[in-house]
Amino acid sequence: MSPAAAAAVGAAAGFAGGYMASEGARSFEDVRQRRRETVQDGVTVIQEPGRQIIRDEDNRVFLRHDETERFRELGGRDVRTERRGGEQVTIYERDGEQIVTVTDDSGRLIRRSRRDRGGREVVIIDNGWRAAPRSFEEDVVVLPPPPLRIPRERYIVDADNADESLIYETIAAPPVAPIPRRYTLDEVRYSPDLRARMRSVDVNTINFETGSWEVPPDQTGRLRALAQAVKQAIQQNPAEVFLLEGHTDAVGSDVDNLSLSDRRAQSIAAILTRDFAVPPENLTTQGYGEQYLKVQTEAPSRENRRVTLRRITPLLNGQNAPAQ
Fold first, then answer.
1. The CATH number of the domain where 241 resides is what?
2. Residue 130 domain-assigned?
3. Can you say whether the dihedral through the CA atoms of 55, 146, 283, 318 is positive or negative?
4. Residue 295 to residue 305: CA distance in whole angstroms
5. How deeply is 134 buried, as exposed, middle or buried, from its count of CB atoms within 10 A (0-12, 13-18, 19+)?
6. Pairing mode of beta strands 97-104, 51-55
7. How far is CA 305 from the centre of its chain?
8. Exposed, middle or buried: residue 43 (CB in 10 Å: 0-12, 13-18, 19+)?
9. Looking at the domain assignment, is residue 322 inside a domain?
10. Does 324 reside within a domain?
11. Can you give the residue ranges of the OmpA-like domain (predicted)?
């Protein structure tokens, strides 16, 4: 990305914190109607409720979402945001605890922590050790593909064929290859080679309709085994971080699919918290649109309209013990 394009991205990200208000976005048609698009130095910036999508000079698209949206939807009046210098601090009050999320003016997550009644703090995500990059391109880490010494069906586990114990074994497993260093959350989000070092669970028990991020009420119970496994891991380590990755099929535009997939991931995260009491601070989400199809087809595909979960704590902390 050229210096002028990088500057354009930075300037756009500073607009209204990088996002439009998300209230009232209840359908994808509503999302489309509320989009605002600007172009500067070859970079297209699309603002939509709760999200910002960047299309760079090389026609690549990146998405960043409002890190506090999920907490505001969960907490209502129990969530407040304060301006402290050049940072936004959002505090979610829950049963005497405080979940504190710090973001910069572009919406980039700097830090998330949990404070108990006695003031003791557990830092869950800390990106403050690295200066903010000038462009999304700087967050992409290229690594060699990890060698697989386990069967592929144990590397990517289908939730509909797995019980709680297998899901827990998958998400609690160490990296399948060494982790060269500590990484930021955005580096993890935008680097498939890096994420590939952790095993994952395809949450294919949920069937999303075309153009929808809603989970039918009769399907939420299918997330019970996944939720129990995640809660078990958090009980062992209160600072665990799990990434929910949203995906779509190849039908529709790349911008629509990127936005839709991100909303699907956030829907699953919200259900895990509301219905199964998974702490929201231990979850984070990212949409990838049609980039990683499970079934290679351009046709409509329920198998491709899915969410994937993986533990990313070793990537954020630089833990380096590969699986045997």
1. 3.30.1330.60
2. yes
3. negative
4. 10
5. middle
6. unpaired
7. 16
8. buried
9. no
10. no
11. 195-320
> Mind listing the pLDDT tens digit for each residue in 300-321?
999 999 999 999 999 999 976 5
| CA gap 189, 286 in Å, rounded | 7
Domain containing 69 equals 3-317
For tokens 């504190």, name the residue.
Answer: 100
C-alpha to C-alpha distance for 273 and 61, rounded to whole angstroms:
29
Q: Is the dihedral of CA 97, 93, 185, 27 positive or negative?
A: positive
Residue type at position 188: V
- Strands 121-126 and 109-115 turn out to be antiparallel
Identify whether the C-beta of residue 36 lies closer than 8 Å to the C-beta of residue 20: yes
Q: Provide CB contacts within 8 A for 281, sequence distance 6+.
A: 92, 99, 112, 114, 124
Residue bearing tokens 């997330």: 223
The number of distinct structural domains making up the chain is 1
List strand residue ranges (DSSP E) for the chain, in order: 36-40, 43-48, 51-55, 61-65, 79-84, 87-94, 97-104, 109-115, 121-126, 156-158, 200-203, 242-246, 283-287, 307-311
Of 19 and 39, which is predicted with more confidence? 39
Q: Which residue has the tokens 């984070």?
A: 284
Could you tell me the two tokens for 102? 């710090």
DSSP 116: -
Question: What is the structure's pLDDT at 24?
Answer: 59
Q: Are 35 and 79 in contact (CB under 8 A)?
A: no
**pLDDT tens digits, 54-106:** 998 888 889 999 989 999 988 877 899 999 988 999 999 999 999 999 999 87
Tell me, yes or no, whether 323 lies in a domain.
no
The DSSP code for 27 is S
CA 309/CA 306 separation, integer angstroms? 10
